[in-house]
Amino acid sequence: MCSVGVESGELGVGETKKGREVPQKPRSNRKPLPLAVWRHQGAGPKNAGKKSFSWNGPVARVTVMDPELIKEILVNNNVFKKPTPNPLANYLVCGLPSYEDEKWAKHRKIVAPAFYIEKLKYMFPAMYLSCSEMVSKWEKLVSEKGLCELNVQPYLESLTSDVISRTAFGSSYQEGRKIFQLQKEQAELTRQVLQSVYVPGCRYLPTKRNKRLKEINDELRSILSGIIRKREMSLNLGESEDSDLLFLLLKSNRQEIQEHGNKTDNGMSIAEVIEECKTFYFAGQESTSDLLVWTMVLLSMHPNWQVLAREEVSQVFGNNKPDYDGLNRLKIVTMILYEVLRLYSPGLLLTRTIFKETKLGELTLPAGVHLLVPVLLVHHDHEIWGEDVKEFKPERFAEGVAKATMNRLSFFPFTSIAISALLVIAVTWTIRLVNWVWLTPKKLEKCMREQGYSGNPYRLLLGDAREYATTMKESKSRSIKLTNDTASHVQPYIHHLIQKYGKNSFMWFGTNPRLNIGDPGLMKEILSKPDVFQKIHPEPLSDIIVGGLLTSEDEKWTNHRKIINPAFHLEKLKELARFFPTKANKRMNQICIELQVLLGGIVNKRVKDKEMGKKYDDSLGILMESNSAEIQEHGIGMSIEEVMEECKLFYLAGSETTSNLLVWTMILLSMHPNWQTSAREEVFQVFGTEEPNFDGLNRLKIVTMILNEVLRLYPPVTLLLRAIYKKTKLGNMNLPAGMQFNLPIILLHHNCDIWGEDAQEFKPERFSEGVSNATRKSKFSFLPFGGGPRICIGQNFAMIEAKMAVAMILQRFSFELSPSYKHAPFAILTLQPQYGAPLILNKL
């Protein structure tokens, strides 16, 4: 890396400690968000540009900020792969997002049908029911004067959890709620694991945390296994219940197997179905709840956008019940959600690694380097989004995401959950240990420096882990002022590196170097080549929370994506550290067991129902139907275990992303009452006082603009990670295998060079002419849902759910920030308010 101009880090620990030791006090609300969140990561661009790297133990991490490089990493997933994960992380999630190569292709193919738009329409009533229940609770809590202070975050988390439970498992949604509880505990245990560098073999230690992780994993598998077997029975009986994701997944899996001569190897096993179920739940719930929270926070901060969104909701639905078609008309709400996702991306990092010398842009990276994409930093990069990148301006997305990003891969809030990774020592503990912890990192460092990248000197084993932990702890201790410069607060270490070394920088994640990619062109190249720039191999512990499509690669990802897709097609929407005996790990294992039982029961029931001819129109039903069709057509589909993993992903990703989008949207509309008014007027104009409908949602232009701006300012995933496992060309760079890439989405979304000097401001009007026009300066600069072939499969689901919730909220309430609100965006798995989102609700 010396050959690319990257400086290195301290022997042994890298900068991990700095990223972990983050103080607990809130920050000033006026501090730029990217600087506040990523203070240590991002202090570097002023000195040496965006080429930087850091150290995670002995692993060099190159931060990637260039949208073109990000695109290259994400698109070439056969080269830029996910880094090898901490084995304990596999307990959390091990579905599609964790797979590579053939398995990823297979799973993607099977899972994709469950997410076809035409399938999502059938899930619409379930979404409406959940939103209606939440709004009714709020109405009861409002005082006689029509005012009350309410922390909306737990309500929005419950909302998205309920939506995922109903849409993923249909009539089995009660078991889904149990899965959510288990995964929530499991996620916290996994977070603890991922804050430290994984040492090979430590997962076998009988710690309390490891024991609990395994207990949760076993419990989850047991629950999911029961659900899946029931669904399989329904499929066998020929029952048509294709309105939930699990049924769609199983159906798609069966079709894949049947299409390939009834060869079960071409489909998913029960274990794989279980992992996909875990992924559905974890990814879906976490991302959506964070989106909702940030949306409400931002709409509270920007009452003008709250008004605009409410007006749009009223215009589209009036007093009628929101419908699927109406949601697609909520342009302002969509803009707001996009801007919330930009400013407060659910996911902060996207990590990839390379296993052979690889060319990335103008870089030639050696094998073993990790590539880190700081999503939040990319979303906050003024070079991409303009000087107003820190501002909440949903108008960026007035003309859609493509125009807002100028067709650059610079807006990807719905990206895969970033799973930290380290190289695993396999054979001997002598020569290979030395090679792993010292010789290889130094070789990669020299390669990066020779190509103009700078970063801390490599430090034995830990890399930048210590510094990373320290800056994260310090950042978490403070709130910031009511400004949208979130990147430095959410991703402090990457931001620090960029400030110190410039945009051509790298960091170390253990022994893996990660290039910081900030150029939308490079981001586009990375994300557009998923076969080359692959997701970093997840830590096994992450499989406990969610697996499935999120972690799959290559053929398995393609297979699962194909099967899952139908459940998320718009037309469907319209119809619709495990071995350590620590207390935490033991609980994670217990939760995993519970989830397996719950999801297994749901899936099994669907299988039996299908055999009896019963059909389901929920996501699970569509997924299982798609899987069955894939099996019938090709003889290759998902196993029950894989369907369960996709279910876990539905739950986690679907709920987390949307809830955070909604929260940030409400916060921003509270801060900008003019937009709140405009959105409300639009909602009443479209729906009046009637329930929102699907077609009406599509007419909510202002709401869409607001959502886009929320996604820009607060993207769910603030950092994407990619990796290459063979020598790869990226831009003008020749990169060796093993290189990883940071794609800082939040910096991209807050880049003043891209979004203008007002990039930090909330301006939904950016998206008044669509995303394409808003990103005209850099087409690949708006990536709230990721980008390339591996773009979030559930993005339509999340946006429809968000529009529905925003429309119904605006129909019934006006809201403003409570004086007790502390602005402290903080990324756990997705970007969310650290201290909740207390708002003052006013019943209309």
Description:
By secondary structure, this protein is an alpha/beta fold. The protein has one domain. It is built from 33 helices and 35 strands. The strands form twelve sheets. Strands 1, 2, 3, 11, 13, 17, 18, 19, 27 and 29 form a ten-stranded mixed beta sheet that branches. It has a three-stranded antiparallel beta sheet with strand order 7-35-32. It has a two-stranded antiparallel sheet with strand order 4-20. The longest helix is centred in the C-terminal third of the chain and has 32 residues, at 640-671. The chain is globular, with a radius of gyration of 23 Å.
Structural class: alpha/beta
* Rg over alpha carbons: 23 Å
Tell me how many strands there are. Answer: 35
Mean pLDDT: 76
Shape: globular
- Unreliable stretches (pLDDT < 50, length at least 5) are 7-13, 40-48, 416-434, 577-581
Distance between the termini: 60 Å
Determine the number of helices (DSSP H or I, runs of at least 4 residues).
33
Q: In terms of topology, how is this protein built?
A:
Layout: H1 16-20, H2 33-37, H3 45-48, E1 50-56, E2 59-62, E3 64-65, H4 67-75, E4 76-78, E5 90-92, E6 95-96, H5 102-111, H6 117-120, H7 124-141, E7 147-151, H8 152-169, H9 173-194, H10 208-236, E8 239-242, H11 245-258, E9 267-269, H12 270-300, H13 303-316, E10 318-320, H14 324-327, H15 331-343, E11 347-354, E12 358-365, E13 370-373, H16 375-378, E14 386-392, E15 399-400, H17 401-404, E16 407-408, H18 431-450, E17 454-455, H19 467-476, H20 487-490, H21 492-501, E18 503-509, E19 512-517, H22 520-527, E20 530-531, E21 543-544, E22 548-549, H23 554-564, H24 570-575, H25 583-611, E23 614-617, H26 619-634, E24 637-639, H27 640-671, H28 673-686, E25 688-690, E26 693-696, H29 701-713, E27 717-724, E28 728-735, E29 740-743, H30 745-749, H31 752-755, E30 756-762, H32 771-774, E31 779-780, H33 795-812, E32 813-817, E33 825-827, E34 831-833, E35 838-843
Parallel strand pairs: 1-17, 1-18, 3-19, 6-22, 8-23, 9-24, 10-25, 11-27, 12-28, 14-30, 16-31, 17-18, 19-29
Antiparallel strand pairs: 1-2, 4-20, 5-21, 7-35, 11-13, 13-27, 18-19, 27-29, 32-35, 33-34
Helix pairs in contact: 4-22, 5-23, 7-8, 7-33, 8-9, 8-12, 8-27, 9-10, 9-12, 9-25, 10-11, 10-12, 10-25, 10-27, 11-23, 11-25, 11-26, 11-27, 12-15, 12-25, 12-27, 12-29, 12-33, 13-15, 13-27, 13-28, 13-29, 13-33, 15-27, 15-29, 23-26, 25-26, 25-27, 27-29, 27-33, 28-29
